[in-house]
Amino acid sequence: MSELVDEKRVLIVGLGLIGGSLAAALRADKTSGDAEAETATLPGRVNIVACDADPDEVAQGIAMGLIDGGDVRLSHALLDGVSMIVLAVPVMAMRGVLHALAPLLESASPELVITDVGSTKSTMVNDAVAVFGAVPNNMVLGHPIAGSEKSGVAAATANLFERHKVILTPNEHTDPQAIARVMALWQAAGADVLEMDVSHHDQVLARTSHLPHFLAFSLVDTLARQDDRLDIFRYAAGGFRDFTRIAGSDPVMWRDVFMANQEALLDALSDFEAGIARLRQAVEQRDGDAMLVTLGRARHARHYFDSLLNQSSYQAEYTMQQQGRLRYRVSPGGNVQGRIRVPGDKSISHRSIMFGALAEGITQISGFLEGEDSLATLQAFREMGVAIEGPDKGRVSVHGVGLNGLKMPPGPIYVGNSGTAMRLFAGLLAGQRFDSELTGDASLTARPMERVADPLRQMGAVIDTAEGGRPPLTIHGGASLKGIHYDMPMASAQVKSCLLFAGLYAEGETRVREPAPTRDHTERMLNGFGYRVERDGDTCWLEGGGKLTAAPIDVPSDISSATFFLVAAAITPGSDLTLEHVGINPTRIGVITILQAMGADLRLLNERNVGGEPVADLHIRYAPLKGIDIPVDQVPLAIDEFPALFVAAANAEGITRLRGAEELRVKESDRLQAMANGFDVLGIQYRLLDDGIDIVGYDKGHALAECQYGGGRVDSLGDHRIAMSFAVAALRASDDILIDDCANVATSFPGFIELARHVGMHLEQEAE
Ligand code: S3P
């Protein structure tokens, strides 16, 4: 990384914690030399000098081996040969430093670049304008988001910036070379560097850093001035200590920051005061639901934004997952054994929150899938004012607000990776009085939304899609909806459910005809909540204007998640596995029918009905599979299971043929193509068609070979089901399979890795 750091000599003005830690980081950097073993004259080692008004700081820096020399004053001698100046003095001292620096710059090297570490940027711009008339093109303003309650160079550590953000705020005149060099400097210190404009930076920092410091200082001071302060501090533990840790920071520095970023801080404070007033009122009025709305939303937001918006997180606690890209390494061999329970059904989990929120009364949910997508749905309702307790080990309580009780969310609703959430929300939001916007991740942004926007418009909804009928969706509230009779051009439970949601708000009857049966969780749940949905053959309908009454929901395990283990057992001799409490809704069991038709030894035990959905324990033992022509009527009933079924086909005798499955091309990825690409790597033979695939297993009359195909590196294209399918494929590969871009497994199957290992698969995760 730091071969990029090509500075002749770096001058740090203001040694302190930040300047000293930068010096330490550059010293510790392997490619620029080891501070203890080498001297300043060795090639490749950056020469670092410092200027600090405190001679003790300079002496300490030299004694610690962080700097090669320094002075208490800026001078021509100190600037001699310097290619980079890092201004690390407190923000209120910056102008004075620039004044002192200006006359010396005339004789400076033409390559000189100046940067700073100040935590407010508008003041820095003002200072530069005051001294130089404008921000010089070789000045790149920057701000490392790192610190500690300690101050002074003695506290400097080489890893202070590691995995922290450094925000640069160049303008359109800033020299790109200068930006690149400052970037290289921080990257050498282990930081992630990003760019922002000055005012955005100051707003963001006011909210995420300056306001919390302000509050911590103020709270500690308020309590410290009370008569019983000794008692208060004697018994202060966990929460108080966590909350007020930052009140131990440097008062002079924070006074400067509050002065420098006055305007943005006061804006942030006003928002905060409004929030405090709302919560205060809830407490005064003993309004438990209102308190829960705020507390629940906050608790959830903390986890949610950390994990979902990790790219813009300013937190230091990075996990591999939060780094975005994850790779699986799955080694061949073994078989699968035991009794397991996979997480809750994704389709039912989304709907349980949606209907619970729109119902009257409290809906108690158990078995809720705590995956990123269903959590995003939960968060969306919190943002629309619904009080939700949990999730806590799959238990959630939703305090329904009734069909017309949702509030306008404060911003766009982010539904992550979930097509189901976006399409169902579209129907639900089309009936609201307020405007809303639906956004999602990169994969979702490529998926077709016209299939719901078009019929919703026929009902009277006002909806804009982005180019090509893609997300984001903008939904204009206040439209009056009318029921329609819609003949679906594709067999889609999402489209059907979307229209039924809108139908709740429509005048008259909303009828949907499906070309083939699709999952019916929406209809079942509506009936369970006391809302009549009728069906005659291929058409279902409801009448708008009714009401939903809360009812308990027990979410069964997701048959789509169970599928990966069913296929794992079906393709590995010696396997014997039981999957407990799996949903076997007749509109979801295509995978069971298909695997049984291929010869799998798969039995349903202990069949029962749980809260309106049938469940069973699935017992599977290895038996040789044979290729089949998959009946077209099974396609919608196994739509999410095909990637895994393709792996079963590659381990079956003869050819398996799939047709009528063009919908696979518009899932989280083009699943036909994604699997075909992986098959190319592993050496599995196939023939790809627009609406299906032929997959070649082993030759007739032969037995399943120990290794059916090779290993290699495949790309999941960020699609959770592609990732898990290739993980299962590794059981019969001759070599490791590396699977790129697996972080999205967490959208539908949190804990997949642990469970896969538990049953006997050899799966490791690594950062890409
Ligand atoms: C789902 C319906 C299916 C399925 C998706 C979940 C649902 O999509 O692929 O994973 O919960 O309604 P389509 O309805 O678009 O086929």
What's the arrangement of secondary structure elements?
Blueprint: E1 9-13, H1 16-28, E2 47-51, H2 55-63, E3 69-71, H3 76-79, E4 84-87, H4 94-105, E5 113-116, H5 122-132, E6 139-140, E7 142-144, E8 165-168, H6 176-188, E9 192-195, H7 198-224, H8 229-235, H9 238-244, H10 251-260, H11 262-284, H12 288-308, E10 326-331, E11 337-340, H13 346-358, E12 362-366, H14 372-383, E13 387-392, E14 395-399, E15 413-414, H15 419-430, E16 436-439, H16 442-445, H17 450-458, E17 462-466, E18 470-476, E19 485-487, H18 493-504, E20 509-513, H19 521-528, E21 534-536, E22 539-543, E23 553-554, H20 559-570, E24 576-583, H21 590-597, E25 601-610, E26 613-621, H22 642-650, E27 655-658, H23 671-682, E28 686-689, E29 692-696, E30 712-715, H24 720-729, E31 737-740, H25 745-748, H26 752-759, E32 762-767
Parallel strand pairs: 1-2, 1-4, 2-3, 4-5, 5-6, 8-9, 11-24, 12-23, 15-16, 19-20, 30-31
Antiparallel strand pairs: 7-8, 10-31, 10-32, 12-14, 13-14, 16-18, 17-18, 20-22, 21-22, 24-26, 25-26, 27-29, 28-29
Bound molecules: shikimate-3-phosphate.
The site of shikimate-3-phosphate has 11 residues, from helix 18.
